[in-house]
Amino acid sequence: MLTEAKARPGPVRRIYQNLGLLLGGKAAAGLISLVYVVAAARILGPEQYGVLVLVNYFAMLVGGLVAFPGWHAIVRYGVQPAESDHAKLIRLLRFTGAIELAAGAAAVIVAALAVPLVGPLLGWSAEAQALAVPYCFAVLATVRATPGGYLQILRRFDLLALHNIVTPIMRLLGTLIIIAFDLGLTAFLVAWLVAAIVEGASLWIAAIYLARRHLLDQPLLGAIADARREHVGLGRFMLTANADIMLGDVTGRLTPLIVGAMLGPTAAGLYSIAHRATIVISQPAQMLGQAAYAELARLASGGGGGGAIRHALARCIGIALATALPLLVLLAFFSREIAVLIGGQAFAGAAVIMVWLTLARVVAMTGPPTSAALIAVGRPGLSVTANAIAGLGLMSLLPLFTHAAGLVGAGYHALLQAVVAATLLGFALWRATGQNP
To answer: Which stretches of 67-125 are DSSP H helices?
Structure first.
């Protein structure tokens, strides 16, 4: 028995094994991203760089609102069929994949139609608006939840980690071409668009390749049946889990757009540099939620009690917060130097918001894994409610904060959102797992 226990690591260890793989890819992606961000900021300057990131955030915002990712449902309902009933699994994959692809196509159309309405509010020139329309195809980068969920079922976090570097490498290659030929904003938008399309397509290709080997007894293509008939609660679960993802994405992508609308593209450029510097704290939290979900779902479906789930989650969050402390100190005391290092002297003003964003990111680290735990125990609605209150519920205050305090007001607002979200999610999980002993 002792040998078997040693051979089979517990859920916390498996979570961090998964996280280690994801972090390896993300660390490489972060280093590569830093190179192209430094180049783009110095070539374009605060205003044009602000336009670049605003166009990208706008496309991703519409993708988050309209697209319909289903990876939570695939992991929750597909773990057991992946081992014993491939026909059931392939029907689930076809169902979620068809919904996601249809929603992604709709998101591209909606984004393109909205450009003439949103562009003037964000201070885009006529040229920038014309470029933003074809850039809406970048929404396709978000249409990859179905293959991502399938890879999680197979525990191929190595491929998910490798996928993290696809976009940075493509953007870096585009940046090198831009430098070589002395190009500008248009070329950056083209490079980022190509990177987005490759990002979405590459994960589908990887999943299809593995599915051909894993699901030999089932054809990948075929009739699309309503999988809700054989998975009790699937439809409601997909709606609530998707709403939770949407709220998280919308909050993060809407903030720079509001900053740009209130303070102009230059302020949006400064905000983006501060966000880029502090994202080294928030991204591990997102990946921790992704890495933890599959194991927490197995723990819940295997009869693990609420105490076991809370214990595993608390250990994961505690380790994550401890590892974030050095980054907190570094960003707090050297914010100006970091801003200048990334964007040049013209971006020194980003330091004023960087400290507050850093504090907010540390507090927010508890959010993604706690939401993953709530979804794993079948209570995604609680996560949706908490994130809705802290995210969209408080978003109406952001214009007031920026009007009263300028750019640093966005930092105050981010910290407020993080504290409220962490409090509500923690309370919700405690209640949910207490009712499921």
So the answer is: 71-84, 86-118
Is residue 4 included in any domain, yes or no?
no
- Its domain, for residue 199, covers 9-434
Measuring CA to CA, which residue among 388, 340, 396 is closest to residue 367?
388
**What's the rounded Cα separation, in Å, for the pair 147 and 346?**
41
Angle, vertex CA 436, rays to CA 294 and CA 7, nearest 5: 40
User: For 8-24, what is each residue's pLDDT tens digit?
Assistant: 566 656 665 665 655 55
> What does the buried/exposed string (b/e) look like for 191-216 if buried means 16 or more CB atoms within 10 Å of the residue's CB?
bbbbbbebbbebbbebbeebbeebbe
The pLDDT score that the predictor gives to residue 325 is 80
What sign has the CA pseudo-torsion 284, 285, 288, 290?
A: negative
Q: Does residue 388 lie within any of the structural domains?
A: yes
Q: Is the pLDDT of residue 155 over 80?
A: yes
CB 118 within 8 A of CB 256: no
Q: Could you give the CA distance from residue 287 to residue 21 in angstroms, rounded to a whole number?
A: 10
Instruction: Please give the structure tokens belonging to residue 106.
Output: 């709709």
CB 238 within 8 A of CB 304: no
Flag whether pLDDT at 56 surpasses 90.
yes
Any domain includes 117: yes
In 215-264, alpha helices (H): 234-263
> Residue type at 244?
D
Q: Which of 406, 280, 269, 276 is nearest to 346 (CA)?
A: 269
Domain count, the chain: 1
Cβ atoms 168, 109 nearer than 8 A: no
Is there a contact between 401 and 412 (Cβ–Cβ < 8 Å)? yes
- Burial readout 258-283 (b: 16 or more C-beta within 10 A, e: otherwise): bbbbbbebbbbbbbbbbbbbbbbbbb
DSSP state of 137: G
Distance CA 170, CA 194 (A): 8
Q: pTM of the entire structure?
A: 0.82
Q: Which pair of tokens denotes residue 34?
A: 């830093």
State the chain's mean pLDDT as an integer: 85
Higher pLDDT, 295 or 341: 341
Of 387, 371, 381, 390, the residue nearest 429 (C-alpha) = 371
Q: What is the pLDDT of residue 236?
A: 85
Domain-embedded: residue 125: yes
